[in-house]
Structure formats: C-alpha cells, structure tokens
Amino acid sequence: MKGQLLLFLGILFAFPLFGQQDSTQAKLDWEADFRFRIEQDWDSRKSDGTFRDDRTRLRYRVRLGASYKINEWAKAGIR
Q1: Do 64 and 32 meet the contact criterion of CB atoms below 8 Å apart?
Q2: What's the first-to-final CA gap in the chain, in angstroms?
Q3: Which of 22, 26, 32, 68 is in the most buried spot, having the most CB atoms within 10 Å?
C-alpha cells in the first residue's frame, strides 16, 4: 500500500503543473448570435397604386465568431 502511494505521488509530481499559465483555450473566446423574425405585409400598395398580394415572410440569421487575445492590448477576431 505504501509503495502504491509513493508511486502515485511520484507520477503526480513528475509532470509540471500549468495552472497559472494562460492556455490557448483560455485566450480563445467563442460567440454566437441567432435572430428570428416574422415580417407580415398585408393590404399594401405597389408604387403604381394597385394592391400587392398579402404575404408573410420568415427571416432568420445565425452568426458564429471567435476572437483570440494575443496579449493585453491586442485581440484578433473573425465572424
């Protein structure tokens, strides 16, 4: 039992701990955006004065983006 404990502690402390360093994952920030709307056009007229057909249109937008913090004063991103 004592040998197993020493082996476990030896393996644990053989690898350096990186808890204080900034990792790539911590510098990378993901963002997302979703928009949905319904546009209704009833009883409207065309430019020549005639009535337009009633219609209902569905609009949606999805945006994805990421930004990477290079250092304290610089950040690069894409969307």
Answers
A1: yes
A2: 55
A3: 68
Closest CA to 76 of 36, 43, 29, 44: 29
Q: Which residues lie closer than 8 Å to 16 by C-beta, 6 or more apart?
A: none
Side by side, which strands form the sheet with 75-78? 28-41, 55-69, 75-78
| Of 70 and 8, more confident | 70
Which pLDDT tens digit goes with each residue over 18-51?
Answer: 555 567 777 889 999 999 999 888 888 888 888 8
Measured CA to CA, the distance from residue 28 to residue 77 in angstroms comes to 9
Distance CA 22, CA 40 (A): 50
Instruction: Give strand pairing partners of 31.
Output: 65
